[in-house]
């Protein structure tokens, strides 16, 4: 009884703590008087319209409208919208709503504000006569062409939202009547404000409080239980991990005879994967739609993934021994599958709304893309072998250098070799804005991708492998080549003129320096100037352009930054509407609503807190797997795992800078690198020759088995050491 | 954990596996049964904003003011007053209708960069089973009304009611303003509404999504729980051995 209670006590304390946190998420306690007050997570809204008209209505009589008069009425509508934002009007509305001396927050018109300049001078504002209550918000909108004012209110309750809209309309009517009383116009010239119906109101997030409380409860429970579990078994886990990593073969040791590792292999799947990786780097596959009717999306990657999956299934069914893909479920697989399942369910629970908003087909397409990511990861993780990881890493660095060179060519010569050359063979659709200047004067450089940000992220992903290659190169020649690769990757990145091209590499260097401070900082100190010169020579003025965007005076005022921060407020209703499961995976169409440039925000809206937690879980699982290998005894595995760790972390950071999952180059590469991490945790397979299932050996036979065929034993002697230099280190 | 181990676990935990499969099938059936409420009907109707002496039949009439008026009309038609009239004409409660527009051509300007207050109103309106969109043509005094509704017939009924409802609103305004008959704005419906079916394939896709989603989560839960138990047992054994070792070492050092 006592022992049971002792074991259950931490769990009970954890449940109590989780319940307390959940309660605090939903309610705010007060001491005098002791009470719990609901937190202001409830949003209600109301919408109404006012037509600026004449006594003989514009919608009734054909005599009324002349073009001049229509423009005048639209201008009046704008004036009225601005009047309702004045201090006096907002204070009056505050008083009428019972806010005392607090004003309501008023803004707008947003439809007229689309053509903005990039940099606005920041001037000090005069002291406010009364405080603004930002929970009571009024938005006035006019489009400048029609005599109509839209009034939107957002308040903590539907009743107050209606009161605010009605109050604003009444105030405007009083104001206009007052003006007309003071300066009586002719009857036919007098403005008549027509209220077009009662406000439409409702609560945006009726379930938000309970869903947030439930999530907080489950999160605290999950994190607490994990910590308790880790504390309880910490020593045993370390011991087991030590044994597991210690038992792994060293990648620097010569391979066994007949190791059958890529590229010296007759296995088909690694070659197909290498081809797929080459396609990721060299082909603008997302812009290529095959002119054939397929059940999946016609972009080039989808049919290739389907073919890859069929080949993989055939290998699973027909092959045995070492050549057969080894499918193992790891925490990364677990989190990826959980994310996929949540994405499916987010669509199912919102099926009605999605169909109603005509977004169901978009969601189905995006789910198909997510499925292709999942399938791709399963295939790569089961096919890759530890000794193949450095070779694939070298291949990817080489391909990334080609992309960087192509990007530099595009930046300097305005010629995109990827789109232009592939366009001669396949139907390539160039992205809008191709070879043009964006709103803040940056050249749009695409490389093989659909978005400059995607290109910058892709090049930054390969940077850790190049740096690690330079750090561990066995010969001077190879080191020089890797340093040039680092310079080209950086130069290609900054040629995109995106802040991401500098922010992510800096984060990569910081992560590498955390694990290998002396080596990494030593390299940066020794080669920093050389790298800067090389980058400047390759992409003149690009580095300066990116740095100027990051200067303290600019970083907070540039549209690319202010737009990002403005989104936090703008998407609050969408997040609070379905906090747990979201509104449906990838259903927040940037063309229809707004471009978020933040994967986490997008996921909070579309798959909710649970889906976003699963997405983060994928990164955490990959990083945890890499961390153990980094601390392992094999320096080669550790170096590669460190590079992969930095790559994964870089995409974790880049996810806050753009919508990573919308652009397939980055997710495919991320999952490939994740599979490399898992492969590095595995021993090299025994050198059993590939067999078909028809010749499958008896149970217990083969490597590790006891009854080896005495007439055809596996080679026990290691082959002679090869003189060839290792691929990456 | 290898694939065959996963199958072994699922076989061993056959009750839990059965429950997961049953839940997945139930979820699929639930989606299928509730799919009748998924809006699959769409209908369009066109309205000409005209004068009593028809612009189409009068060479002396400049259509520009009518085009300008059509644009205003398209916006007025999204208001609650006109929606109530449309609902009355179609026999649908007004709170089941929501409207957006006016949109001119492809640029859905009013829907971009929407601030939180306006977005809140759009979200509240997502529940409405009937969605109406009004598009005013750039160079003609024609408004195209598109209605999405639960079925093809429902959508067509509401699309046909757009003309009647708007006409009722305009008549009321003309009565109120004592508009002379020769000055009255005249609305003409350009033929009956055309209706069709959309989103039909999304039903099947959602059923598959429900089945897979519940199945995957359930299997992950079973396998994850079993893996955790096994790991727990393994770690307990290792911890026990380590403690024994530690005790042996401390006894030797004494």
Gist?
Chain A contains 24 helices and 10 strands. Chain A is α+β, with helices and mostly antiparallel strands. In chain A, a hairpin with a 4-residue loop joins strand 1 (27-30) and strand 2 (35-38).
Write the topology of this structure.
The complex is a heterodimer of chains A (729) and B (254).
Chain A (H helix, E strand, L loop, with lengths): L1 H25 E4 L4 E4 L5 E11 L12 H17 L3 H10 L6 E5 L24 E10 L6 E8 L2 H25 L8 E5 L4 E4 L4 H39 L21 H15 L18 H18 E2 L10 H19 L1 H6 L3 H24 L5 H25 L3 H6 L29 H21 L3 H19 L5 H16 L1 H22 L3 H9 L1 H4 L3 H12 L1 H6 L21 H8 L1 H23 L4 H20 L10 H16 L10 E2 L37
Parallel strand pairs in A: 4-5
Antiparallel strand pairs in A: 1-2, 3-6, 3-7, 3-8, 5-6, 9-10
Chain B lengths: L2 H10 L1 H21 L6 E10 L13 H13 L3 H11 L6 E7 L12 H10 L4 E7 L5 E8 L2 H25 L9 E4 L4 E4 L2 H54 L1
Parallel strand pairs in B: 2-3
Antiparallel strand pairs in B: 1-4, 1-5, 1-6, 3-4
Describe this structure in words.
The complex is a heterodimer of chains A (729) and B (254). Chain A has two domains: 44-118 and 130-203; 268-680, no CATH class. In chain A, the strands form three sheets. In chain A, strands 3, 4, 5, 6, 7 and 8 form a six-stranded mixed sheet that branches. A two-stranded antiparallel sheet of chain A has the order 1-2. Chain A is globular, with a radius of gyration of 31 Å. The two termini of chain A are 58 Å apart. Mean pLDDT of chain A is 83; it is low at 114-122 and 693-729. By secondary structure, chain A is of the alpha+beta class. Chain A contains 24 helices and ten strands. Chain B is of the alpha+beta class. Chain B has two domains: 1-37 and 200-228; 41-198, 2-Layer Sandwich (Bacterial polysaccharide co-polymerase-like), CATH 3.30.1890. Chain B is 57% helix and 16% strand. In chain B, strands 1, 2, 3, 4, 5 and 6 form a six-stranded mixed sheet that branches. In chain B, strand 3 and strand 4 (142-149) form a beta hairpin. The longest helix of chain B is centred in the last third of the chain and has 54 residues, at 200-253. Classes of the chains: A alpha+beta (729), B alpha+beta (254). Chains A and B meet through strand 3, strand 5, strand 6, strand 8 and helix 5 of A and helix 2, helix 3, helix 4, helix 5 and helix 6 of B.
């Amino acid at each position: 009884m006592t022992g049971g209670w002792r074991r259950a006590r931490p769990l009970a304390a954890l449940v109590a703590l989780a319940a307390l946190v959940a309660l605090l998420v939903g309610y705010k306690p007060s001491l005098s008087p002791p009470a719990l007050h609901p937190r202001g997570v409830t949003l209600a809204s109301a919408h109404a319209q006012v037509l600026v008209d004449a006594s003989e209505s514009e919608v009734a009589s054909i005599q009324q409208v002349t073009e001049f008069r229509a423009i005048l009425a639209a201008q009046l509508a704008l004036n009225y919208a601005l009047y309702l934002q004045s201090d006096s009007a907002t204070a009056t509305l505050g008083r009428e709503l019972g806010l005392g001396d607090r004003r309501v927050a008023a803004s707008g018109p947003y439809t007229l504000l689309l053509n903005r300049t990039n940099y606005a001078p920041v001037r000090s504002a005069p002291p406010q006569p009364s405080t603004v209550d930002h929970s009571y918000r009024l938005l006035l909108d006019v489009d400048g062409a029609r005599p109509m004012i839209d009034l939107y209110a957002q308040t903590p309750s539907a009743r107050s939202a209606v009161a605010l809209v009605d109050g604003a309309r009444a105030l405007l009517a009083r104001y206009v009547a007052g003006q007309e009383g003071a300066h009586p116009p002719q009857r036919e010239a007098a403005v008549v404000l027509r209220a077009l119906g009662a406000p439409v109101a409702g609560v945006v997030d009726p379930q938000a409080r309970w869903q947030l409380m439930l999530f907080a409860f489950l999160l605290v429970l999950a994190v607490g239980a994990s910590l308790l579990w880790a504390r309880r078994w910490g020593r045993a886990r370390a011991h087991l991990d030590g044994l597991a990593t210690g038992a792994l073969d060293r990648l620097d040791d010569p391979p066994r005879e007949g190791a059958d590792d890529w590229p010296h292999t007759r296995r088909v799947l690694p070659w197909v994967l290498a081809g797929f990786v080459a396609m990721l780097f060299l082909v603008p596959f997302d812009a290529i739609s095959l002119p054939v009717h397929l059940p999946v999306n016609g972009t080039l990657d989808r049919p290739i993934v389907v073919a890859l999956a069929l080949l993989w299934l055939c290998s699973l069914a027909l092959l045995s021994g070492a050549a057969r893909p080894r499918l193992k479920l790891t925490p990364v697989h677990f989190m990826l599958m959980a994310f996929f399942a949540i994405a499916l369910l987010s669509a199912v629970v919102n099926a009605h709304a999605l169909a109603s908003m005509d977004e169901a087909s978009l969601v189905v397409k995006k789910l198909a893309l997510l499925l292709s990511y999942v399938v791709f990861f399963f295939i790569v993780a089961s096919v890759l072998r530890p000794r193949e990881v450095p070779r694939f890493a070298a291949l990817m660095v080489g391909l990334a250098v080609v992309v960087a060179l192509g990007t530099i060519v595009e930046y300097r010569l305005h010629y995109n070799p990827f789109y232009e050359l592939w366009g001669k063979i396949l139907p390539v659709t160039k992205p809008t804005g191709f070879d043009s200047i964006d709103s803040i004067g940056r050249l749009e450089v695409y490389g093989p991708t659909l978005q400059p940000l995607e290109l910058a992220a892709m090049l930054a992903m390969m940077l850790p492998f190049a740096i690690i290659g330079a750090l561990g190169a066995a010969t001077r020649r190879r080191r020089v080549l890797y340093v040039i690769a680092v310079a080209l990757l950086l130069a290609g990145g900054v040629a995109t003129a995106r802040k991401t091209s500098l922010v992510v590499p800096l984060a990569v260097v910081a992560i590498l320096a955390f694990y290998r401070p002396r080596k990494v900082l030593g390299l940066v100190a020794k080669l920093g100037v050389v790298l800067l010169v090389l980058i400047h020579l390759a992409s003149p003025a690009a580095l300066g352009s990116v740095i100027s965007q990051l200067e303290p005076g600019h970083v907070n005022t540039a549209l690319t930054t202010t737009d990002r921060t403005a989104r936090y407020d703008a998407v609050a209703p969408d997040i609070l509407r379905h906090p747990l499961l979201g509104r449906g995976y990838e259903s927040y169409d940037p063309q229809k609503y707004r471009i978020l440039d933040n994967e986490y925000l997008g996921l909070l809206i579309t798959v909710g807190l649970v889906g976003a937690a699963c997405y983060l879980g994928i990164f955490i699982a990959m990083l945890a797997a890499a961390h153990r290998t980094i601390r392992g005894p094999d320096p080669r595995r550790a170096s590669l795992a460190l590079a992969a760790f930095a790559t994964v972390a870089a995409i974790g950071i880049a996810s806050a800078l753009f919508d990573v999952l919308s652009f397939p180059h980055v997710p495919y590469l991320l999952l490939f690198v994740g599979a490399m991490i898992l492969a590095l945790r595995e021993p090299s397979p025994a050198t059993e020759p590939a067999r078909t299932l028809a010749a499958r050996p008896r149970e217990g036979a083969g490597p590790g088995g006891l009854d080896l065929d005495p007439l055809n034993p596996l080679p026990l002697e290691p082959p002679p050491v090869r003189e060839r230099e290792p691929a990456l280190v | 954990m290898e694939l065959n181990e996963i199958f072994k676990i699922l076989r061993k935990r056959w009750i839990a596996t059965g429950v997961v499969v049953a839940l997945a099938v139930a979820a699929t059936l639930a989606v299928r049964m509730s799919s009748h409420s998924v809006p699959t009907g769409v209908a369009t109707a066109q309205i000409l904003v005209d004068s009593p002496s028809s612009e189409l039949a009068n060479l002396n009439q400049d259509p520009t003011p009518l085009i300008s008026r059509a644009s205003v009309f398209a916006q007025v038609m999204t208001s609650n007053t006109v929606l109530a009239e449309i609902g009355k004409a179609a026999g649908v409660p007004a709170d089941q209708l929501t409207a957006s527009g006016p949109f001119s051509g492809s640029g859905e300007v009013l829907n971009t960069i929407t601030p939180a207050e306006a977005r809140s109103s759009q979200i509240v309106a997502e529940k409405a089973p009937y969605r109406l969109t009004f598009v005013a043509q750039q160079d003609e005094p024609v408004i195209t009304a598109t209605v999405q509704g639960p079925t093809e017939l429902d959508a067509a009924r509401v699309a046909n009611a757009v003309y009647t409802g708007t006409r009722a609103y305009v008549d009321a305004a003309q009565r109120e303003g004592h508009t002379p008959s020769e000055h009255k704005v005249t609305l003409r419906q350009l033929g009956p509404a055309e209706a069709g079916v959309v989103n039909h394939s999304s039903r099947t896709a959602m059923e598959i999504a429900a089945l897979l989603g519940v199945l995957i989560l359930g299997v992950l839960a079973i396998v994850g729980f079993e893996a955790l138990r096994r790991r727990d047992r393994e770690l307990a054994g290792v911890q026990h051995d380590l403690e024994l070792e530690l005790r042996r070492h401390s006894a030797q050092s004494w």
